[in-house]
TrEMBL record:
NCBIfam families: Rv2061_F420. This is Pyridoxamine 5'-phosphate oxidase N-terminal domain-containing protein. PANTHER family: HEME OXYGENASE HI_0854-RELATED, PYRIDOXAMINE 5'-PHOSPHATE OXIDASE FAMILY PROTEIN. GO terms for molecular function: coenzyme F420 binding; oxidoreductase activity, acting on the CH-CH group of donors.
């Protein structure tokens, strides 16, 4: 089981969601930490959002930009954020990723409007205690 330190501040996070048939879909995404949560940003009607609505259980692992894991996977629970929380998450993404983050978020805002994207808070599950 990975420690919380493995997920302290990765540049990319591999989020693996489950389809209704049980198969999994891994997706590399930008991520910022907010307290105990990892916050990602995505298109509101994306497949991963639909899968999270159906089953909030996910796994997360640090990865590179292409989605190749750079650390172990950990079980977690995802929660879709409301508009105000998503706006705060988008601003944090822009700050963390600098000019590229600003360009991507603003470009998305021009294409999709202010509510075309959503942030997702991912809370890593607490490690199980073994006696």
């Amino acid at each position: 089981m990975p420690s919380q330190e493995d997920l302290t501040n990765p540049n990319y996070l591999l989020v693996t969601t489950r389809k209704r048939d049980g198969s999994t879909v891994p997706t590399p995404v930008w991520v910022v930490r907010e307290g105990a949560d990892l916050v990602i940003w995505t298109v509101r009607d994306s497949g991963k959002v639909k899968r999270i609505r159906n089953d909030p259980r996910v796994t997360v692992a640090p990865c590179d930009a292409r989605g190749n894991p750079t650390g172990p996977a950990s079980p977690a629970t995802a929660r879709l954020l409301d508009d105000a929380e998503s706006d705060r998450g988008r601003k944090r993404i822009q700050r963390k990723y600098g000019a590229m983050g600003w360009l991507v978020v603003q470009g998305s805002r021009l294409r999709r409007g202010t509510t075309g994207t959503i942030c997702v808070a991912i809370t890593p599950d607490a490690p199980e205690e073994h006696s």
